[in-house]
Specification:
By secondary structure, the chain is of the alpha/beta class. It folds into three domains: about 60 residues, no CATH class; about 425 residues, Alkaline Phosphatase, subunit A, CATH 3.40.720.10; about 80 residues, Arylsulfatase, C-terminal domain, CATH 3.30.1120.10. About 30% of the residues lie in helices and about 15% in strands. The protein has 16 helices and 15 strands. The longest helix has about 35 residues. The chain is globular, with a radius of gyration of 25 Å.
């Protein structure tokens, strides 16, 4: 009997043993070191005949009864799925082909074709709070990201305002790692710069990440003095100048997976792309890919996207487009030269999305080519609504950016420029909802979400069930056979696993009594069932809460505060209770 055969058989025995005891709800926790030691000892002590006998005895309890013991360990299947989580950065709701967009995204669309497209997946309204909620399964205040990029409140240390993952939660990658998963991440981190706030500290065994909230795509010039910061595993590192971010992150993630693909362990891979986040920069062969596509302007695109969403079945046929934002200059009032520059912005944004899709295709192709696709749960999402920032022309980074970049028309989209597509195009990308990134209106928080893979019963399906980014952590923990601490050392997760829903065992993720609450930067919302209260602009004041039935009116065009005063008061009282329970501290509390 060959050593490879012995190793494969012992790995199979171990997996079957784990499966058999888990079926009896007996919790076991064996470290990777102990697992390896047991395999080595058993190989030395047990005869080949006894190994075969034990394999036969255990096979009846093992969920994977099709395992071929004549194959080396690399070819054995794991009973638990691999998980590939792909997060686009600032991708608008209406920007994917499968959502009706004219941007070509066939690879991303294929995820929906073999699984489920969700029309009511909710995130936080900004990047870092979404990431904190994603990794913790909890509210942004409990997770430590009450205010993106700001530590403390009014110059005082305050729980919730750590601007990094707090000690009140356990990041789920750490739990997956302890459960025997290889854990990898590339791309944007945005959850702290220090060692104890690093991806490694959060449980990633391999990592290559931009630590800041954004960065230039061909170098580390960034948008502030000192440039962007990067970390590889436990050490600070540099971005290789001249490489394109999306290409590099894809390459590194494939390298991570490939290095351990034969160790018999499942993987969790987090592709946290920085595309299509500003600055709008693309490789040369993408620069003119969408030339002329958007010459009719942002107002026409907003209306066109609204119609295409209806045709794609993403929104109800009787949906109404929310009132146009009066603060945005109508397209026809721009000069010809202004229109030329504005159209170019959207061309570059579309090219970034197209490029992102090509690299998602690389990941999918790798999984197929290496026999990993069928056992990999694939999730694609955006982290919030479309982005309206334009730091080149306004804000605290304007001076640095104008000194280091040139946004002349002929340079737009190259590494020499720092272009954003700004409020008008962001509002078009957020159709059919009101507002955009940073707002607690639906336009800031409803994001694309596609899921396919093992455990997903539906195929080529569109579903409007409500769930949030907090539901992903408990889902992954359940799939991994891991356990979140319940000894009082950390706060319990607020999210709920969606595995039953994906399997077709239940019709909804959350019942009508489930409450979602968030406060960030002077904007807040609370949702229970079909009803939602939110304020539009800071500073925060409970008196500014408006009331919407977001199922009947997803565009939040009809404030029902006057028609439904009892419902409004009920939800405001619920907001007060949730604020106290979650430890949401406002500036006026100090």
């Amino acid at each position: 009997m060959s050593p490879g055969y012995n190793q494969a058989m012992m790995q199979h025995l171990f997996l079957c043993y784990k499966d058999s005891v888990l079926r009896r709800s007996i919790e076991i926790s064996l470290s990777e070191t102990l697992e390896g030691a047991l395999v080595d000892v058993a190989q030395k002590l047990l005869s080949p005949f006894l190994l075969v006998l034990l394999a036969a005895l255990f096979s009846g309890a093992c969920s994977d009864t099709s395992t071929d013991l004549s194959k080396p360990v690399a070819a054995l299947s794991e009973t638990r799925p691999n998980i590939l989580l792909i997060v686009a950065d600032d991708l608008g709701y209406a920007d994917l082909g499968v959502y009706g967009s004219d941007i070509k995204t066939p690879n991303i669309d294929s995820i929906a074709a073999s699984g489920v497209l969700f029309t009511q997946f909710h995130t936080a309204p900004l990047c870092a709070p979404t990431r904190a909620m994603l990794l913790s399964g909890n509210n942004n205040h409990i997770a430590g990201m009450a205010r993106q990029g700001e530590v403390g409140l009014l110059n005082s240390p305050v729980d919730g305002y750590e601007a990094s993952l707090s000690d009140r939660i356990v990041p789920f990658p750490r739990l997956l790692q302890q459960a025997g998963y290889n854990t990898y991440t590339v791309g944007k981190w945005h959850l702290g710069l220090e060692d104890d706030n690093s991806p490694h500290a959060a449980g990633f065994s391999r990592a290559f990440n931009l630590l800041d909230g954004a960065g230039t795509h061909f170098d580390s010039v960034g948008f502030f003095e000192g440039g962007s910061s990067y970390r590889e595993d436990e050490e600070l590192t540099f971005f290789p100048e001249g490489r394109y971010s999306t290409d590099l992150y894809t390459e590194r993630l494939i390298e991570f997976i490939d290095a351990n693909k034969n160790d018999g362990k499942p993987f969790f891979a987090f592709a946290a792309y920085t595309s299509p986040h500003w600055p709008l920069q693309v490789p040369d062969d993408y620069l003119d890919l969408y030339a002329g596509y958007f010459d009719d302007g942002y107002d026409a695109l907003r209306e066109r996207r609204f119609v295409s969403l209806k045709k794609a079945g993403i929104i109800p046929a009787d949906s109404q487009l929310p009132p146009r934002n009066a603060g945005i200059t109508p397209w026809e009032e721009l000069t010809v030269e202004q229109q030329r520059h504005e159209s170019r912005k959207m061309e570059l944004y579309a090219a970034m999305v197209d490029n992102l899709d090509d690299h998602v295709g690389r990941l999918l192709e790798y999984l197929h080519a290496n026999g990993l696709y069928e056992n990999t749960l694939i999730i694609f999402m955006s982290d919030n609504g479309a982005a309206a920032e334009d730091f080149f022309n306004r804000g605290e980074y304007k001076e640095y950016l104008q000194a280091h970049f040139d946004n002349a028309y002929e340079k737009m989209g190259t590494a020499a420029s720092f272009v954003s597509y700004d409020e008008p195009w962001a509002e078009a990308g957020s159709a059919p909802f009101m507002r955009r990134k940073s707002y607690t209106r639906e336009g800031g928080m409803v994001a694309p979400m596609l899921i396919t893979g093992p455990g997903v019963a539906a195929k080529n399906s569109i579903n409007d069930t409500y769930f949030t980014v907090m539901d992903l952590a408990p889902t992954f923990i359940e799939l991994a056979g891991a356990k979140y601490p319940d000894d009082g050392s950390v706060q319990p997760m607020l999210g709920e696993s969606i595995t039953g829903f994906l399997a077709g065992k239940v019709d909804v993720v959350h019942d009508e009594n489930y409450v979602t609450t968030l406060y960030h930067g002077g904007r807040a919302f609370l949702r229970q069932g079909d009803w939602k209260i939110s304020n539009l602009e800071p500073p925060f004041d409970e008196a500014a809460f408006e009331l919407f039935n977001v199922v009947a009116d997803p565009g939040e065009a009809n404030n029902l505060a006057e028609q439904e005063p009892e419902k409004l008061e009920q939800l405001i009282e619920l907001w007060r209770e949730e604020r106290k329970k979650l430890g949401i501290i406002l500036p006026q509390d100090l």
